[in-house]
């Protein structure tokens, strides 16, 4: 009598049946969420999966991390066959120290294959190399690009070939321990959004003056005050995100066309009084601001006096950096109430610590358009918090209360207060974002 075949468990049969019965569209959507190495493995499952993994719709977006030269060489050959379908390409390179040069050449071969295909619209190249990453003709050939992100996280990023031919490019990111733009280089003329991270250069590249359409700029640099002078030539600049450590740009008060400003003081190298006076002097001139965010240590996030005179301000965030809950007492800062003034009449969204808001209920009551309030910082405590909750329960325009506090659990008494408020005002939307970096409201102001 022939031996009986052992049947698979019902759960295994069900799992196999469910995978085999996936509609083609759903299978392709799932494979589209994988990075490229995982897609290659999935393509080995069956002919159907191979076809799905190489469907042009799936190949539109490629994300890949490479750290071995043979695999990168194989990947470059694969791109020669399929690169015409790729629209978005994200490549992260970790070259071995013994093979850095051939590794980078092979990475550039990948980009050359995509340039030859002529279909790429978004390119992100991140290199973790201890040698300079050169941006030359391989980049200038990508004429159809709309978004370009170039980063060398361990060394210099050098642009040695003109990028003036990238006329479709609207968003550009350049990041490195140093970003060098050769004197003869022209940047893409139609860029509207630029992110520049350069921790070594003494001045912004003068070629920025040629970006006549630039409207949004994010800077993480360490220039001296006069190193930002080129900003005055950007006549369309409306949004500025600035992370600084020692000085504000000397020309910042001259940028009167700004509508949105985010100041992130990293490290707190400036003396407190000097930092507050510098921010106040800037805001006295930038009276057209509709959006303002000030980040830093708790004592540096107090509202500047000039804030109250910003009569067009609609959105404001005063958010301190997150700290270790076990060291919270070291960060206690006496609350500085918000000042009354014209700004309250136009304000629609406001983020600040509970302590500041609880001492400012008079100003909050004078804000007839305030619809959204966000509790930021690291603490849900105040010696006068009852006044705040009473205001929140009665202010007619308030529609959303967002608790955006990082690093702390909410005490039972506070939960009871919040629940009571929700019952009193069921139409009020109450949300919570307990994350580790002081919440997420300030991220809405950041460069996307």
Automatic annotation (TrEMBL):
PROSITE patterns for the chain: FBOX (PS50181)
Pfam families attached to this UniProt entry: F-box-like
Principal cellular location given in the protein's record: cytoplasm
Cell location: Cytoplasm, Cytoskeleton, Cilium axoneme
GO terms for cellular component: axoneme
InterPro entries reported for this sequence: F-box-like_dom_sf, F-box_dom, LRR_dom_sf
Annotated ranges, domain F-box: 16-62
Listed name of the protein: F-box domain-containing protein
Source species: Chlorella ohadii
